[in-house]
Amino acid sequence: MFTQFEKTLGSYRALEKLLADGKVRAIGVSNFSVEQLIALLAEVDVVPAVNQVQLHPYFQQKDLQAFHAERGILTQAWSPIGGITFYGRGDEKRSTLSDSVIGAIAAAHAKTPAQVMLRWHLQEGRSAIPKSTKPQRIAENFDVFNFELTADEMAAIDALDTGDGGPGWPDEVLLSFGIVIPGSLSRKHTLTPAQTHAAGSSGDPERTQK
Ligand SMILES: NC(=O)c1ccc[n+]([C@@H]2O[C@H](COP(=O)([O-])OP(=O)(O)OC[C@H]3O[C@@H](n4cnc5c(N)ncnc54)[C@H](OP(=O)(O)O)[C@@H]3O)[C@@H](O)[C@H]2O)c1
Predict the structure, then answer these.
(1) Which domains does the chain have, with CATH numbers?
(2) Is-contact 180 3, C-beta < 8 A?
(3) What b/e readout covers 5-37, taking b as 16+ CB neighbours within 10 angstroms?
(4) Which residue, judged by its Cα, is nearest atom 22 of ligand 1?
């Protein structure tokens, strides 16, 4: 019987062995919060090379980024051009692609909003992994190395942060998978009886699994 955190540690230690054996060049994590990283770092030998997290102009996770910088962990942005915002955020339905601030900066450089957001990531030292099914957009998303945003433009995009990771974030993740995210116990997430039923779990954050 292992707790979810022990299972995560077991997986991470297996990654550490792959690294020691020369089977992989680097190991990392995804969607770890500061609290989860602290819990992990207290138990393992290798600092993760990367933490892949939701990060775009509307959700910048600045505290997490500062922690990464302190510990030498690369911040890798998923939904880097705000893909997750296209689905709507409650009644607001505000998309980064149609943001007026980003649009004005794009027009000033004869670039697209997507290119401006990717350039913003690169200039702040992040890795970004945009996704497109369209060859033309994939090419567009690579074409970001021939212009530079000014300090004022960078600051204007920095100011768009809402601190909101979307409806239910991160609780929705817990509900979707019916498990507690390892290391998140300190956040005291509890599911309502209806959520517990939907998730098919016991809803007990301290529960163990076989
Ligand atoms: N670790 C995690 O938990 C996690 C979670 C979510 C996502 N990810 C990864 O992160 C990557 C990207 O995230 P994401 O897909 O959520 O968001 P994203 O890359 O920010 O946005 C993708 C959306 O933007 C559109 N798009 C792409 N390039 C565009 C452009 N130049 N102009 C206009 N629209 C453009 C795409 O549509 P088209 O395809 O039609 O072009 C798609 O709707 C994915 O590869 C995914 O695997 C990781």
Answers:
(1) 4-164 (3.20.20.100)
(2) no
(3) beebbeebeebeeebeeeeeeebbbeebbbebb
(4) 83
pLDDT digits (tens, 9 = 90+) for 99-149: 999 999 999 999 999 999 999 999 999 999 999 999 999 999 999 999 999
Considering only CA atoms, which of 133, 81, 88, 132 is closest in space to residue 102?
81
Largest CA distance in the chain: 58
> Which atom, in ligand 1's list, is nearest to the CA of 132?
39
Q: What is the Cα–Cα distance from 35 to 97, expressed in whole angstroms?
A: 31
Hey, which of 52, 59, 81, 89 would you mutate to test ligand 1's pocket, going by the most ligand atoms within 8 Å of its Cβ? Answer: 81
pTM of the model: 0.84
Alpha helices in 74-150, H assignment, sequence order:
100-109, 113-123, 135-142
Residue positions counted in the chain:
210
Closest residue to atom 36 of ligand 1, CA basis: 132
pLDDT exceeds cutoff 80 at 92: no
Pocket of ligand 1 (CB under 6 A): 30-31, 52, 78-84, 86, 97, 112, 114, 129-134, 137, 140-141
What number does the ligand 1 atom closest to the CA of 81 have? 20
Question: What confidence score (pLDDT) does residue 93 get?
Answer: 66
Q: Which amino acid belongs to residue 51?
A: N
The rounded mean pLDDT for the chain is 84
